[in-house]
Design brief:
- There is one protein chain.
- By secondary structure, this protein is α/β, with parallel strands linked by helices.
- The protein folds into 2 domains: 133 residues, Leucine Dehydrogenase, chain A, domain 1 (Rossmann fold), CATH 3.40.50; 133 residues, NAD(P)-binding Rossmann-like Domain (Rossmann fold).
- It is built from 10 helices and 12 strands.
- Strand 8, helix 7 and strand 9 form a beta-alpha-beta unit.
- Helix 1 crosses helix 9, helix 5 crosses helix 6 and helix 5 crosses helix 9.
- The longest helix has 16 residues.
- The protein binds 2'-monophosphoadenosine-5'-diphosphate.
């Protein structure tokens, strides 16, 4: 009998996770059913419990429930605790719920696959929400020379930087305090969703800089278009999405799927609409 998994979110209809996990299941020969489940905005925990009662073994969690998922777990991984958010829930044999966060490792794996160096580099992260909190620890573990967090609400970036200062040279503030050039700029804001661009200085990029948007779409995001016009190499968040899913699949199935063919499949379906 196949094990049941799902992605819980609101909205969730356009989630690519079912396609990704079904591709991993086919590739690894693991019999796994994976669906997208809409959880009511005021009923996340009830939706998870109902899914478990109907035979569910685990779930990915997406907007806006990652913090609620963290709160309902019996235990969480260290990286989930640092992120303060859970994107992967697993139901143990004993009925206990384990929470993990694979977003950060997903970003790191994709940066490695794209051969983007981090050690000794000057890195800028845009945004100070949950998406950014989840990637700071793995980024800092790669020993960048400096990590700067810039956010529309500067105080949120300052507070976030203070939370991670034990892991490296981190500072945070509003966009107006940005100075100097960066080797890597990661957009972790949701501005791209609205087709908007944070107010960035013209002189943001070093000559060989990389611009990475944690969002993706069929066409390059406004941030990536802006960065490309200023000479940066651009990468969107499709690879991160597939890598975080692969790490969740590994947690559930103890098998690491090949991500490159699944990323290619996803890119093809995205472009073909
Ligand atoms: P998530 O959990 O997806 O990170 P969030 O916590 O709502 O979602 O955070 C969204 C981030 O995008 C925030 O950093 C937000 O800036 P504020 O903290 O000032 O709200 C940022 N953001 C959203 N829209 C933006 C825009 N149009 N320009 C710049 N930043 C934007």
């Amino acid at each position: 009998m196949s094990s049941r998994y799902c992605v819980l979110g609101n909205p969730v209809k356009h989630s690519k996770s079912p396609m990704i996990h079904q591709a991993f299941a086919a590739q690894t020969g693991k019999p796994l059913a994976y669906t997208a489940e809409l959880a009511p905005l005021d009923g996340f925990e009830a939706a998870w419990r109902a899914f478990c009662e109907s035979g569910g073994r685990g779930a990915n969690v997406t907007v806006p429930f990652k913090q609620q998922a963290f709160a309902l777990c019996d235990t969480q991984s260290l990286r989930a605790r640092r992120a303060g958010a859970v994107n992967t829930l697993s139901l143990g044999q004993n009925g206990r719920v384990f929470g993990d966060n694979t977003d950060g490792i997903g970003l790191l794996r994709d940066l490695k696959a794209c051969e983007v160096p981090l050690a000794g580099k000057r890195v800028l992260v845009l945004g100070a929400g949950g998406a950014v909190r989840g990637v700071l620890e793995p980024l800092l573990n790669e020993a960048p020379r400096e990590l700067v967090i810039a956010n529309r609400t500067g105080a949120r970036a300052e507070a976030l930087a203070a939370d991670f200062r034990d892991l490296g040279t981190v500072s945070g503030g509003g966009y107006e305090v940005l100075s100097g050039r960066f080797d890597l700029v990661i957009n972790g804001t949701s501005a791209s969703l609205a087709g908007e661009l944070p107010p960035l200085p013209e002189t943001l990029f070093e000559p060989d800089a990389v611009a990475y948007d944690m969002m993706y779409a069929a066409a390059p995001t406004v941030f990536l278009q802006w960065a490309q016009m200023r000479g940066a190499r651009t990468i969107d968040g499709l690879g991160m999405l597939v890598e975080q899913a692969a790490e969740a699949f590994f947690i559930w199935q103890n098998v690491r799927p090949e991500t490159a063919p699944v990323q290619a499949l996803l890119r093809k379906t995205l472009i073909e609409g």
